[in-house]
Specification:
By secondary structure, this protein is mainly β. It has a single domain, classed as Lipocalin. It has one helix at 2-23, and strands at 37-44, 49-59, 64-72, 80-91, 96-103, 108-116, 119-128, 131-143, 146-155, 158-170.
């Protein structure tokens, strides 16, 4: 009896271990973000400079990625601080990535994320005091430490109204 139990455990335990490790593999595509800081710089279409720093770490046994975004939190004074906190997760029901962004002003944005070759797309509905539009942030990989950034709005069911051009670079 004991030998049958031992054999059963020897068969089941490796399968459980593989299942557990595969559970977290969905976020491996974003491993490059972990335990590093990324600086985003660019200019909005009106010429206003844009700057943010992203810091990321694993959360919930590597089933989510937690991100803090530091930037301007007061437009009048230029004061900087934590502007947003976000979570990236893999939605098993929808079989896709989601990002939940919570900002210092009380807003919440939900973004779908898709990967296509050297590009990462973040698509979301932007709503600022009644001004609504569908937006897309595109990260274009240049190398392991650098991405191009394009933020654009959808017009007439097409992407192309560029709101911001910038760069994202790893700073540590």
């Amino acid at each position: 009896m004991k030998s049958k139990l031992l054999i059963a455990l020897l068969i089941i335990l490796p399968a459980l271990m593989v299942a557990q490790s595969n559970k977290n593999n969905e976020l491996e595509e974003f491993r490059f973000l972990i335990d590093s800081d990324w600086e985003t710089t660019g200019k909005w279409e009106n010429g206003t400079p844009f700057e943010q720093i992203y810091s990321s770490e694993w959360g919930l046994n590597k089933s989510i990625i937690k991100i803090k975004m530091t930037g301007i939190i007061n437009l009048e004074t230029g004061e900087k601080g934590i502007r947003n906190e976000a979570i990236i997760t893999y939605d098993k029901k929808l079989q896709g990535y989601k990002m939940y962004i919570f900002d210092v002003f009380g807003g919440t944005t939900i973004s779908t994320i898709s990967l296509d070759g050297n590009k990462i797309y973040f698509v979301y509905n932007y709503d600022n005091e009644g001004y609504k539009m569908k937006m897309r942030n595109t990260w274009i990989k240049k190398d392991e430490n650098n991405f191009g950034l394009i933020i654009e709005a959808e017009e007439n069911d097409k992407w192309g109204k560029i709101l911001l051009n910038g760069n994202i670079k790893k700073i540590n």
